[in-house]
Amino acid sequence: MSQEKRSRLELTRVSTPAEVRDTTAAWVQEHVPKAWQEASIAGRAAIRAVRTRADYERWYPTFAASGLAVATWPVEYCGLDLPTDLARVAEEQLAPFNLGRLNPLGLHNAAPALFAHGTEAQRARFLPPLVRNEERWCQLFSEPGAGSDLASLALHAERDGDEWVLTGQKVWSTWAHHSEFAVCLARTAPEQPKRKGIGYFLIDLRSPGIDVRELRHMGGVVDFNEVWLDKVRVPHDQLVGAAQDGWRVAASTLAGERQMVAGSGSGGVDRIGGVGADRLVDQIRDREDHPALADRAVALWSEDRIRGWTNQRVRATVTAGGTPGPAASIGKVQQAALNQGIQLAATDMLRSAAMAWEGDDWVASMPYEVSGMIRSRANTIEGGTTEVNKNVIGEKVLGLPREPDPHHGAAWKEIPRG
What we know:
The protein is an alpha+beta fold. The protein has three domains: 3-100, no CATH class; 112-250, Butyryl-CoA Dehydrogenase, subunit A, domain 2 (Beta Barrel), CATH 2.40.110; 251-397, Butyryl-CoA Dehydrogenase, subunit A, domain 3. The protein has 14 helices and eight strands. The protein has a four-stranded mixed sheet with strand order 1-4-5-8. Strands 2-3-7-6 form a four-stranded antiparallel sheet, with no helix packed on it. A hairpin with a 5-residue loop joins strand 6 (210-216) and strand 7. Helix 12 (325-350) runs antiparallel to helix 13 (368-376) and helix 12 runs antiparallel to helix 14 (386-397). The relative contact order is 0.09.
C-alpha cells in the first residue's frame, strides 16, 4: 500500500467529533516522528530544537496525503471534505505539534481564485501539487507604477492563437525566487477602463523570458523580488476567468492574502517576523526591572486575543462558503500595527543588546527579536497598505462615499501615469 493511502484519514462529513478526535490522534501517533511528539510537551521552541526546516519539508508529503492540511477541501483536491466544526476538532488535535502549512501563497492566494473562478481542469491540475508543496506559488501583482493603485498596472498581455504573450515588470513579489508558479495580473485591453481590461494568469516561472531578481531588505534577508517578463508565452487554458475580468478574480486572491497576513488563514502565517504575544508575556513575567514594559506587554497580549476572535469570525465565514470580505481588511489593519508593537516591545527588552552584537556574519548573529522587529516594518505595506485597507473599511463597512477619482470610467490608455 502506498504511503499516501496509508496516511489518508478515513473521515467523512457524517463523522462524529469523537471519531475525528480519535482518528486524528491515532494518525499523529503513527505518522508524526516520536521526537517531535515528545518535544511538543515543552512547546514550539522545543519542537524547533529537534526539527529543522529541511526535516519538516521531507516529512510534509505525509501530512499533505492525510487530508488534514486542507481538511475542508474536497477529497479530489487532497482534502477530507469536512465541515467547519469537524475540521476545527481535527485542528485542535494537531495544534500542539506545530504542523504549519507549507506553500502559504499557494493555499491563500492562488487557491481561492481557482475555487471561485477556475475551471475544473485548472483545479484538478494545480490544486493537488500545490497542497503537497510540489509546486510553490507566488504572486505577480505590484509594479513600479502600480502599488497602492494596483488597477493601474501596465504589464501587457496580447492574445496569439492559443497563447498569450506577456511583457513587463513586477516588483515586491514575495518568495518568487523559491517558486515554480505565480498568479499574475496583466493588461489585456488598454482601451477599457483600468479595472475592466485585466486578465488573471497562472504562469510557470520556468518559462523562457522570465528573469527573477532578488531584492535584499534592510534585515539582510531576501524575501522580495522583482520579476521581468519578456514575451513570455502562457497557454490560454491558464487564464482564470474571462480575459477582461481579472480584477474580479483578483479580489479572491487579495482577500485571501489579507486573511493570511492578518493571521486568520487556516494554518497560514500567524505573524510575519518576530515573537508572538504569548512569548512576549512569558519573557517579561519573571522580570521586575521593566514594570512599564510589563504593562505594555499585557496590553499587546489583550489586543492579540481580540485579533484572534476577529479571525475566528473570518474563518467561520469562509468555511461556511462565504468570502473574507471587508473583515479581512479589518484584521489586516489591526494585525499590522499589533505585530509591529509586539516586535518593538520585544526589542526594547534587550536594551543595549538590540543595538550591537558580536559575530562575523551580522545577519546570522542578529538577535531574533531584532530581525523580527526589522521584518515587521513591512507589515503595514504588504498584503495591501494600511491606507488602502482603511479605504476598504470606510467604503465597504462604514458606507462612506468613495474617494473622488477624476479618471473614473476613462480608458486605461488615456489615464496619465508617472
